[in-house]
Amino acid sequence: MLRGSNLAMLGLGLMLLRGSSSGQPQAPTSSAAPGGAAPPKALGLEVPRVLTGGQPLEQWFGDRYRVAVEVLRLNLPGNVVTDAALSVVAQWAHETGRGRSEFNFNMGGWRARKTDPYFVARDVQTGKELFRWTAYPDLPNAVHDQLRRLHDTFPSAWALLATEPNTSRWVEELGRKGYYVAPPGTTQAQHIQNYTRAWASNRAELGRLAIV
Q: Which residues contact 174 (CB under 8 A, 6 or more apart)?
């Protein structure tokens, strides 16, 4: 699990990925309110829901896998990076129907935070309620933020991903910690089993494409 200075490395990954077209990282900017107090963050704005998946599977997977490897390489031991990236993208494949239901680069089904740009859509589990989902402007920022949120929100699952990336234990832990919740008529234990089975199937198939 990443702690302390390693979290700064995740921040560094974002800075590198958000660099200008010249390849140089952009310096962060800030503004201060009178008296030196930082201004409050603006509330997130609604943006149109835009399909960002739907490419042929090899292209969809390859684009996301390569960026995941780039970010994880800064934060995990070298011997687990590619396996961890494959495991994460396999989970994203399950969440998005292999990209067919990926909107605004939200691959992990992350709900919008107060300051996030967001789009509105129904939860496929219920089909009724409308929720606000984080909308990302591009793939590099999407991959970075969703990996950070996985690390920060589900540290026990991240620890398993970082040490046992070839096993399903981290996916099962996500279910135990509430990342995904059973639909009506299914127990959480059954749902964890079904979700893990689907993840493993995606991982096996995508593993044949995992060439950086």
A: 91, 154, 157, 180
